[in-house]
Design brief:
This protein has 286 residues and is α/β, with parallel strands linked by helices. The protein has one domain: Alpha/Beta hydrolase fold, catalytic domain (Rossmann fold, 3-Layer(aba) Sandwich), CATH 3.40.50.1820. The chain contains 11 helices and 8 strands. It has an 8-stranded mixed β-sheet, with helices on both faces. Helix 2 packs across helix 3.
Length: 286
């Protein structure tokens, strides 16, 4: 499809808006909060040039993708979206590049159906099999607990043209020039009716609404080959959360740390990101 074209795929009773490039083996690129599929534009272009069918969906609830009619924004539902989109795009297997919530969804999908996931690139969130409850992480996770409150977070985040989002980006990526943030699409998605409530529902579902089944699946070791990308200057997730991340995997695992990079490695230092991702995607595994 031509650059800039958005394709809509309805699956799991949700119309998913997707950016799409190229042909070949499927690679899904999944964004997190506060973000949209547009953050993967450069990644999609390079993936297509390397011979992949590259697709970045706007995650459920993020405009122009529709809201979940049943209000389900659990990680299990996000994982099922990966599998449903893969089938709808005409593929049996998929490689997934997941950032933030997209990474949680990616390894959860791999734990549910490892036969459907070829390999994973995970960015900037811990794996629940090897996470640590540390003071540094509790301090950085203040917003997660704030989002558990009713109605107040929605009011605060909306103020002054979503200035809260600008502040998060500055804190999470302190070495990134704010001129590169380009948050217009993010704010538009959150301002769309139901959009902000949906985005915050991801956090509420994870903390207050997670089932025992979901916790168990997320805590399983992952058997799919994985490249883990860590920003050493991430103001959202402490680097101590990745101290033992290798223990969460039973197959190939490579952890790469990007110096002076914060919470958005694929945007803050794309050349380094692609330098690591391309050979990983091409690598042959038994």
């Amino acid at each position: 499809m031509a650059e800039g074209t958005i394709r809509t795929i309805t699956t799991n009773n949700i119309p998913f808006a997707c950016l799409e490039r190229g042909t070949g083996p499927l690679v899904l690129c999944l964004h997190g909060f506060p973000d949209t599929a547009f953050s993967f534009e450069e990644t999609l272009t390079h993936l297509a040039g390397a011979g992949y069918h590259a697709v970045a969906p706007f995650m459920r609830g993020y405009h122009p993708t529709g809201l979940a009619a049943d209000g389900n924004y659990s990680v299990l539902s996000l994982a099922e979206d990966i599998l449903a989109l893969t089938a709808s795009l005409g593929h049996e297997r998929v490689s997934v590049i997941g950032h933030d919530w997209g990474a949680f969804a990616a390894y959860t999908a791999a734990n549910l159906h490892p036969d459907r996931i070829d390999r994973l690139v995970l960015m900037c969130v811990p794996h629940m099999h090897a996470t640590h409850l540390t003071l540094s992480q509790l301090r950085k996770s203040w917003y997660v607990f704030f989002f558990q409150l009713p109605w107040l977070p929605e009011r605060v985040v909306r103020r002054h043209d979503f200035a809260f989002i600008d502040r998060l980006y500055r804190r999470w990526s302190p070495n990134w020039d704010p001129a590169g943030f380009d948050l217009a699409a993010v704010k538009k998605a959150l301002a769309t009716p139901g959009g902000l409530k949906a985005a915050l529902a991801y956090y509420r579902s994870m903390i207050r609404g997670a089932s025992k089944e979901q916790r168990g699946i997320m805590a399983q070791q992952t058997t799919v080959p994985t490249l883990y990308v860590v920003g050493e200057a991430d103001g959202s997730v402490s680097t101590d959360q990745f101290a033992d991340v290798e223990k969460a995997f039973t197959s190939y695992i490579e952890v790469v740390r990007f110096p002076r990079v914060g919470h958005f490695p694929h945007r803050e230092n794309f050349p380094l990101f692609w330098q690591k991702v391309q050979p990983f995607l091409e690598r042959k595994f038994a």
